[in-house]
Amino acid sequence: HSSHLYRPPAPGSRPPQIPNAGRAGAQAHQHRARGGVGGGVEGRCGSQPSHRAGTGARLGEGRQSVAGHPKPGLEPQTHGESRTRPNPLRHRAPLLEMEPLCIQIAALGRPLYPGMLYDCRSDSFIPGVTLWNRESLNKDLDTHVKPHTSFNVTTSDTINEKAKLLEISGSLKASILGGIVEIGGSAKYLNDKASSLHQSRVTMQYGHTVRFEQLTMTHLSKVTYPQVFEQRSATHVVTAVLYGAQAFFVFNSTNFSKEDKTQIEGKLKMVLNNIKNLSGQIGGELNLTENEQELVSGFTCTFHGDFELQHNPTNFTEAVEVYRTLPERLGNKGEKAVPLRVWLYPLRCLDSKAAQMMREIDETLVSRLQSVLEELEDVILSCNDLMAESILQLFPEVHDKIKEFYSSLLQYRVLFQKNLSSVLSAVRGGGKEEQDLESILESHKRSPFSSDKLKKWLGLKRSETSVLVKYTKPLKESHILFSSHLEEVLLDPEIDTTICFTFTSLAYSEPYLSTLSTYLNSDHNEDQSAINEENVQPWFRSDQCSSAMRENLKLFTSFAEANQHRERIKFVSAAISDPEHPGASIRLYQQAQLVDPKYIPVPKPKSAIVEDIQCSSATLRLFMSSENVRYYRVEYRKKLKEAESGAEGIEEWTVTDTVDLQETWTISGLQPSVTYVFRYRAVSDVGVGEASEVTEFHTKPDKVSLSLDMNTAHESLNIDYLDFLRTCSRRNDVFKRPSHPGRFSEVPQVLCSESLSDSCFYWEVDWVGGGFCMGVVYGSINRKSAGNDCLLGLNDKSWCICSLDGTYTSVWHDNKGEYIMKQCGDRLGIYLDWPAGTVTFYSVSSDELVHLHTFHSTFTEPLYPAFYIGK
């Protein structure tokens, strides 16, 4: 109850006398005259002085006055003896001006009017029973105008904040927590709770008081029905009421992050604070920015109020319009106002036979009870959020467990409140001690519904849900059908083969849920602190399950992707309990019959090896990936250049199947001097497997047919033609050849007859013996000199590779040389790309080309293959 104190008599006056109020009332006033009753929250009539203050005092142990000082108008007491002398009291003096024993409480939408009886033990009013008839009550009622307006905006949704807005304090709050107070009107805001932890909630409160009514001493001196005292159904009578009305506008929106939630609530609070002055202004304008308009459009509104509305507002705009009209809805004279706060006078002070409240509830105890219910509410909200996860619609096994847990929580909350309500009334009435409330808290702490146990189990479910989300994401990306009715898929006549990724361990036992159910049906006195959980390990925390699921998921998704275009095969996912294959397995169905509960698709094969490369073919070595492979599917295409790597430039794979499980396979029909990439897959009776890693190779260029030009050969060179082979060797002597303007006269060099330009050309040269230089030259190179302008590589008209002793190799152009740290071998390949301006030299072996060097230039004349023959 509230800690409001009531005004004592004016300084210098005497304590009031209550005519014909009964012996108990007289004794009470006599005792208060001695200073035995203090000015605390609930001074108790007929009690003895006590040095114990605070909550928990019995109704025979009145409190001291505020700060320990005697009340104004009363002389100090000595050993309980009064030194005051009563003065006559005006007959119609309001009771509240003289009686410090009254307590005040919030009406909470209840019809609490002057003269009504109230039982503080159960915080309930007694309808139909009064001390006075209606005529007497209305005759001497004292009324005052009390206009006051309040406005608040809060983002807090706690019980404490709601109680603060409704001016609910300790003992009444305990009754509300116990669910024994029937509330109405604006007080229903207490029951407006979030349905999700992700909700943004902002509440705007408007309150207005209009008048104050109270009984006078005339009523207390003329009790019409004194037999009511003997019924002992009430402890207090309503002696004063403050009238007015309140309204709560609760704005709700759903978000998905804690940061966004806090930020959005803060922004809406600022907007709501700006509409404070619109109350009563029908034409007032509320100017919102575009961002603010977008913000408020995302909120719904719930209205709780003491005002009569034809339609409750459901959004921000409607809420503002209703808010503007609230003052006028109370009526011109406030005739539509309702009780907001009431003052209660103890019946014990009127007659000793009346019932009384023997004990208050300790504030600390109320706070602890509140914490228990708030913790339960948080877990309930977490359950709501978890059950709303879309992933659980695919897995009813998990959803149903959380739903069962949620149902048990609701039952326990009702049970807890029921026990609390019965003990609260008994403690206040003196039938039980506060220790019984402590026992309720201790029992809760030992029960399986304690906060730690609830959060632990819910945390496991949250982890399980997170694992399911992570495993189903790649399935959705692969367009896998999730089927809770697998039989419908199996019976489809257009499907021959069904392959199902199966979650096998979702239906594991839950001892904790059984414990909750057992506790709800027990006497709750047994120690339930030891829950048998250690023998049941969740499947998602098992290393064996995790390993099996990872492996099967990878096999399944790759197998599904490889066969996604096959019409009579279907890939689905489902939850089927299978303890023999924990975690997950792949189930194979053919013609609607289960063929293999642990099917293993053909795995990804290891990369192939290129054993031989020609200009138009390549021979590959393939490797068997599993025993159920029937043959291989080889796929190849040209490698794209970076500039061609866009979607439009991607070339389709060319597919070829091997005849059987042969280890080598030759790809034919390739283009010369082109880089290819290829991969291959294993094929079983069910489908084709995942492709191997891509391997790259470059086909050899197509060789150009060349002939040595006798008219360019130096006289020391011997040219032979044998079986279409052109050979050139150097002699110690010289041949006397006819003079020719194209012949090299001073250096042992020779050119080919073919002029090369505007295309690509490749040729190979075998060499034996001493040193050499070979490459390409312009036809305009000097032929009659022994200087640099004639020698290969020493001028800007020639590009060559040289090896003078067979060990060191160098490349030359324009008299600039560069050594290369590679052996050139016995055969050299030369590739000329005249349009691109490149000349490339290779060392040629049986199965590969080894790159030696590439010249980059811009060719302006036709080129001729050229050779320098050393000794």
TrEMBL record:
<feature type="compositionally biased region" description="Pro residues">
    <location>
        <begin position="8"/>
        <end position="18"/>
    </location>
</feature>
<dbReference type="InterPro" id="IPR013783">
    <property type="entry name" value="Ig-like_fold"/>
</dbReference>
<dbReference type="InterPro" id="IPR052090">
    <property type="entry name" value="Cytolytic_pore-forming_toxin"/>
</dbReference>
<dbReference type="InterPro" id="IPR003879">
    <property type="entry name" value="Butyrophylin_SPRY"/>
</dbReference>
<keyword id="KW-0800">Toxin</keyword>
<keyword id="KW-0354">Hemolysis</keyword>
<feature type="domain" description="Fibronectin type-III">
    <location>
        <begin position="602"/>
        <end position="702"/>
    </location>
</feature>
<dbReference type="GO" id="GO:0031640">
    <property type="term" value="P:killing of cells of another organism"/>
</dbReference>
<dbReference type="InterPro" id="IPR040581">
    <property type="entry name" value="Thioredoxin_11"/>
</dbReference>
<dbReference type="Pfam" id="PF00041">
    <property type="entry name" value="fn3"/>
</dbReference>
<dbReference type="Pfam" id="PF13765">
    <property type="entry name" value="PRY"/>
</dbReference>
<dbReference type="InterPro" id="IPR003877">
    <property type="entry name" value="SPRY_dom"/>
</dbReference>
<dbReference type="GO" id="GO:0005576">
    <property type="term" value="C:extracellular region"/>
</dbReference>
<feature type="region of interest" description="Disordered">
    <location>
        <begin position="1"/>
        <end position="88"/>
    </location>
</feature>
<dbReference type="Pfam" id="PF18078">
    <property type="entry name" value="Thioredoxin_11"/>
</dbReference>
<dbReference type="InterPro" id="IPR006574">
    <property type="entry name" value="PRY"/>
</dbReference>
<feature type="domain" description="B30.2/SPRY">
    <location>
        <begin position="686"/>
        <end position="871"/>
    </location>
</feature>
<dbReference type="InterPro" id="IPR036116">
    <property type="entry name" value="FN3_sf"/>
</dbReference>
<dbReference type="InterPro" id="IPR056072">
    <property type="entry name" value="SNTX_MACPF/CDC-like_dom"/>
</dbReference>
<keyword id="KW-0204">Cytolysis</keyword>
<keyword id="KW-0964">Secreted</keyword>
<dbReference type="Pfam" id="PF24674">
    <property type="entry name" value="MACPF_SNTX"/>
</dbReference>
<dbReference type="InterPro" id="IPR013320">
    <property type="entry name" value="ConA-like_dom_sf"/>
</dbReference>
<protein>
    <submittedName>
        <fullName>Stonustoxin subunit beta-like</fullName>
    </submittedName>
</protein>
<dbReference type="Pfam" id="PF00622">
    <property type="entry name" value="SPRY"/>
</dbReference>
<dbReference type="InterPro" id="IPR043136">
    <property type="entry name" value="B30.2/SPRY_sf"/>
</dbReference>
<dbReference type="InterPro" id="IPR048997">
    <property type="entry name" value="Stonustoxin-like_helical"/>
</dbReference>
<dbReference type="InterPro" id="IPR003961">
    <property type="entry name" value="FN3_dom"/>
</dbReference>
<keyword id="KW-0175">Coiled coil</keyword>
<dbReference type="GO" id="GO:0090729">
    <property type="term" value="F:toxin activity"/>
</dbReference>
<dbReference type="InterPro" id="IPR001870">
    <property type="entry name" value="B30.2/SPRY"/>
</dbReference>
<dbReference type="Pfam" id="PF21109">
    <property type="entry name" value="Stonustoxin_helical"/>
</dbReference>
<comment type="similarity">
    <text>Belongs to the SNTX/VTX toxin family.</text>
</comment>
